[in-house]
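Entry for the shared binder. Reason: the reviewer on the internal report wants the predicted structure included alongside the sequence.
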Amino acid sequence: MKTKRKKNTRQRGSKTHGWGSMKKHRGAGNRGGRGMAGTGKRADQKKSAIINEYGLKNYFGKHGFKRPQRTKRLIKTINVGDLNFPNIEVNLNDLGYSKLLAKGIPNKKYYIKVEFCSKKAKDKIEKIGGKVEITK
């Protein structure tokens, strides 16, 4: 006996799966769909019924606005161990860095100007004999 393929696999791509009109066999009885389906956004004869039921301002179109979100400022960081500059005086703000972090060991005593600095990084630089100046 030859095995027969399932009916629903053979109906793929047929839109109605052999039930004729779209409203037949929809699984929502004679309601015309579930929820707000078929409320007639495009049909003028139904618009008056929609306006009476939902109110003119609440159903059609877009409502309100989204508040513009404040974008986070990108803080570019550099570690103390990555400081490898020929000059002793370094302005990290001019080089594009805005924060000095404490990872690593400094190889020279630097005089650094930077916008933000962690306490540990400042301690490490000052322990060697350098100085950190925080600018705004």
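Summary line for the report: The chain has a mean pLDDT of 84.
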